[in-house]
Specification:
This protein is α+β, with helices and mostly antiparallel strands. Helices cover 31% and strands 23% of the residues. It contains eight helices and twelve strands. It has a five-stranded antiparallel sheet with strand order 4-3-2-1-5, with helices on one face. The protein has a four-stranded antiparallel sheet with strand order 6-9-8-7, with no helix packed on it.
């Protein structure tokens, strides 16, 4: 009897899993075609191993330029991409170890499978695996679509993801089977130790996603926002809302380790043709990933945003090298 019950339970679980995977594939397919039809210009695919960002920008005339980024990768993932003729670059990689052919990658994989021992090149590959240096950048319709195809069929191509739940999709606009995500929000009132000190104006702080206005009575009002992932359009809207109140505030952020490399202003993302363009001009023309409140400044280079402060209509950012 116990065997029959167990078999029935396994059957129900497998049926649920098949339906869940099918619904996810429909969602991803719907979201990608919205992306290609310009109904959205940015969305994320979040797995337990890496985060993928799809983004597009208006090009010359009516054309659009499509890009995608994988936050971190392994030799196996890069080999799979090359085997399926999906080209990519590694803009954060400081060595030339990845500039090899598909045949090189296949040969190294065969050596590893036969347990013939590691080689110096294989060790070099491992040095960048699952680090910000292993970020992959994809440009052009063919390569971006090739990446989409592999992710859509990830259970066949990326078997290491089969042991976890389906990837989570994030987009600023509704899509098929989408659900609203409600982050955890905590509001606190904090009495400042130096509350006797007179303050010239109201201000606020925002730490780890929480905002703390400081009143003349010496009180700080903290708002802490937590979720597995908080997309940039949410952060931008919160900061824009805080700034619209005319108050100063500070913000600090905790970055999910698998997405660290996506939080950098890469030269391949925003390229200014005229080398004489000023910082102010470059900010106006910088690529914003489809987020109206966001500006990518090329002068920041590869820095991880740790925090920012807003005062008198301008922001000051705190960066950490990647």
């Amino acid at each position: 009897m116990s065997i029959l019950v167990s078999s029935a339970a396994d059957g129900v679980e497998m049926d649920f899993l098949r339906k869940r995977i099918g619904a996810w594939e429909e969602s991803f397919r719907s979201l990608y075609y919205m992306f290609r039809e310009n109904a959205c210009s940015v969305f994320y695919v979040c797995t337990s191993h890496f985060v993928v960002m799809f983004t597009s920008v208006d090009g010359l005339g009516r054309s659009r330029s499509y890009q995608a980024y994988i936050s971190q990768s392994t030799r196996g993932l890069r080999s799979s991409l090359k085997e399926h003729d999906v080209s990519f670059t590694m803009p954060l990689c400081r060595s030339q170890v990845e500039q090899v052919t598909t045949e090189d990658l296949v040969e190294l994989s065969e050596i590893e499978k036969r347990n013939l021992g590691p080689t110096r090149r294989m060790n070099s590959f491992s040095d960048v695996d699952n680090t910000p240096q292993s970020l992959l950048a994809f440009s052009g319709n063919q390569n971006v679509h090739g990446l989409y195809d592999i992710l859509l069929n990830y259970r066949s191509f990326l078997t290491f993801l089969n042991v976890v739940d389906v990837p989570v999709l994030y987009c600023p606009v509704p899509f098929q089977h989408a659900a609203l995500s409600a982050p955890e929000v905590r509001c606190m009132e904090i009495k400042r130790a130096d509350h006797g000190t007179s303050l010239s104006h109201a201000s606020s702080t925002l730490n780890d996603g929480h905002s703390t206005p400081i009143s003349s009575a010496g009180l700080c009002y903290s708002v802490e926002i937590k979720d597995s992932h908080i997309p940039p359009w949410i952060i931008c809207k919160i900061c824009a809302l805080m700034a619209s109140k005319g108050q100063s505030f500070e913000a600090s952020f905790t970055t999910e380790h698998t997405s660290v490399s996506l939080n950098t202003a890469l030269g391949v993302v925003s390229q200014i043709a005229d080398s004489e363009v000023t910082v102010e001009d470059s900010q106006e023309t910088a690529y914003t990933f489809g987020i109206p409140e966001a500006i990518v400044s090329p002068c920041l280079h590869s820095g991880l945003l740790k925090g920012l402060s807003y005062c008198n209509g301008s922001y000051t950012v705190s960066l950490s090298p990647v």
